[in-house]
Amino acid sequence: MIIDTLNNATTYQSLHPGFKTAFDYLRATDLNSLETGIIEVAEGVKIIVAEGEARSAEAALKTFECHNKNIDIQLLIGGVETMGWKPRKDCSNVQGDGYSDENDILFFEEEADTFFTLHPMQFVIFYPEDVHAPMIGEGLIKKLVVKVAI
């Protein structure tokens, strides 16, 4: 997991070929004007523009998630968002039917090891080994979830 601001994004571009594409798009776009939906940026890089009411930590941990095929870059646009995190290697209580290949998601029933808070123009990068619970807080949250194919 990496947490930083969009101003420092170039620091991470060499970590994955799709990161430069993603961060170039984010820096060149009026992010506040984006409407909810999916934007196909390039092969292997898409952005989900999401807006919704924040939820309690208890509710968010019911969808404590990770992915196998994508790295998430979650960039906060509006509001204040807290997220829970735990290393996947420490998670054993798989929720439901297990991994969904179609949706590239696996849910766990676990407690977070730590919580952190993002403010506008801050991002977090979640790798497959990062189990995360987003959208914790109060009020409206607007964010981008960049899916970078592995």
TrEMBL record:
**UniProt cross-references to InterPro entries, sorted A to Z:** NanQ/TabA/YiaL, NanQ/TabA/YiaL_sf
- Name one matching Pfam family: DUF386
Gene Ontology cellular-component annotations: cytosol
Its name, as the record gives it, is: YhcH/YjgK/YiaL family protein
Q: Which domain of life is it from?
A: Bacteria
